[in-house]
Amino acid sequence: MDENITIVKREMDYMKNVSHIVREIWCSVLGDQNHDLQKSIDKCHAFPFLREDLPAAAQLSHGFKAKNVQITPEDIIDHPNMNSQTELLYFQS
Question: How far apart are CA 83 and CA 45, in angstroms?
Answer without folding.
Answer: 9
